[in-house]
Amino acid sequence: MLQSIGVPGLVIILVIALILFGPSKLPQLGKAVGQTLKEFKNSTKEIVDDVTGEFKEVKEEFTLVDLKKEDSSKK
């Protein structure tokens, strides 16, 4: 979504923000948005890491089951 905005779109958004919030509130607003995005990114990374870990565990379990089946079929 943000990839298609471009420079003119960002300028328009900044002008609207300047009109709505005034020059004194823009740094605070920018900081709040930055912190929110940072927290969102960290949370997303944690979720991806958890899911990846679960997939690795399941893959290892299936590998062990497959190895046990191969051993029992050879006997």
From TrEMBL:
It is a single-pass membrane protein. The keyword ATP-binding does not apply. It holds the Pfam family TatA_B_E. The chain crosses the membrane at residues 6-22. GO terms for molecular function: protein transmembrane transporter activity. It is found in: Cell membrane. Keywords: Cell membrane, Membrane, Protein transport, Translocation, Transmembrane, Transmembrane helix, Transport. One of its GO terms (biological process) is protein transport by the Tat complex. InterPro entries: TatA/B/E, TatA/E. Signal peptide: none annotated. GO terms for cellular component: TAT protein transport complex. Belongs to the TatA/E family. HAMAP family: TatA_E. Part of the twin-arginine translocation (Tat) system that transports large folded proteins containing a characteristic twin-arginine motif in their signal peptide across membranes. TatA could form the protein-conducting channel of the Tat system. PANTHER family: SEC-INDEPENDENT PROTEIN TRANSLOCASE PROTEIN TATA. Forms a complex with TatC. This is Sec-independent protein translocase protein TatA. It comes from Ureibacillus chungkukjangi.
